[in-house]
Amino acid sequence: MTSLPQVAPRIAKLTALSIGVALLATACGGTSTPTATGTGSASANAAGIACPAPSAGAGAGTSAATNGGTVPASTGTTDTPLKIGSLLPTTGSLAFLGPPEIAGVNLGVKEINDAGGVLGKPVEVIHRDSGDTKTDIATQSTTALLGQGVGAIIGAASSGVSKTVINQITGAGVVQFSPANTSPDFTDWDDKGLYWRTAPSDVLQGKVLGNYMATCGAQTVGMIVLNDAYGTGLAKNVKAAFESAGGKVVAEELFNEGDSQFSSQVDKVIAAKPDAIALITFDQAKSIVPLMTGKGVKPTQLFMVDGNMSDYSKDFQAGTLKGAQGTIPGTFAKEDFKKKLLAIDPALKDYSYAGESYDAANLIALASEAAKSTKGVDIAAQLKAVSEVGEKCSDFPSCVTLLRNGKDIDYDGQSGPVTFSEAGDPTEAYVGIYEFQDDNTYKASKEEFGKL
Predict the structure, then answer these.
(1) Would you state the pLDDT for residue 66?
(2) What CATH number matches the domain at 40-61+202-329+432-451, 2.40.40.20, 3.40.50.300, 3.30.70.260, 3.40.50.2300?
(3) pLDDT digit string (tens) for 5-14?
(4) Which one of 3.40.30.10, 3.40.1160.10, 3.90.1150.10, 3.40.50.2300 gives the CATH number of domain 83-200+334-420?
(5) Closest Cα to residue 34, out of 210, 212, 204, 301?
(6) Which stretches of 148-189 are DSSP H helices?
(7) Global pTM?
(8) Cβ distance 219 to 7 under 8 Å?
(9) Three-state DSSP class for 271?
(10) Helix, strand, or coil (residue 101)
(11) Mean predicted confidence (pLDDT) in 389-418
């Protein structure tokens, strides 16, 4: 078997980031930057990768206090109750993201209805599968949801899938609100002001991952990249950040959705002898990782992304991914939030984008209440307003209480601070960094915060 080269561990020089990324121990504190000397993580390996040590208590803590009092009655009424559709994956290459996202939506809707609903009526949620770009499931599901009169659709998770339905949804005057789309392409999409997202653009995730690999001592990186809007967009930003930090991308191999053979891409990346390898894929990682490790790649040389950060405990032998790391946009899921999600779906293993999905449901409901309307165009007109310049609140009962008392609100939720740009993008966000354990599940390591 062939091993990748050994290089002396070092911390690559970092350039100042225009997004103002700050490394945090947790959401509540910690040092602002990694030190060039000091303790490396336990996953330091023979290839010279020595990442900053995980932050003590990363991912722990509790959510902000919420209102426990009586929610006042709505000051508005509606003949048409708010209907929210979800277009989230239960099949296809991102099916592992479906359960936490659906649980986040269901938890949000439950709390909304427990507080009396929107405009005096319970909210109805209708779930449909998005599939992936290999099928036409998303178009069929969208047609069904629009036919049932939804005012907003939460989804899709995949940027590629959203591109197939965004014109259909926004053209019908319905809000499309994705909890997980990260392609920068949506920022300038002609969506009539109806497309919104709680996940930050991959401009942020790419800069975080590229710079993080540099702080781990990597001077060269190879990449295996899904050839779609998500994969190539993220790869572009990872490459730009890594090279700005003094490194060099020595191999970048593409594959297409639906491909099942990856030996060629793996062999070409390994032949370039990179210090670190970024896997920008969906569940194709289940096939790619064994090929990599079977040819001598250390798991601590692997850096993954939100599209493939999953529970691999049933897929790989123990230790296969131990020390591999990856990024997921959004802050760490707090323990009390996890407990609430598990009450909705006791089988949950991952929590990726659950917070973003929960926030999407709450923001849609609050904007509907503020607009005194359940129509998509009216909801969209209030989404920015309920996310900025007002009294801070973090769930539907506390926020709607303020609204019904005539207050302006600033919703900051489970995904972190939420402040929208005119394009419907978050203007600030966290990106979590996670490390895989011996059982091939991942654990929160540290967070970075950035503004876009």
Answers:
(1) 57
(2) 3.40.50.2300
(3) 444 333 433 4
(4) 3.40.50.2300
(5) 212
(6) 159-171
(7) 0.81
(8) yes
(9) helix
(10) helix
(11) 95
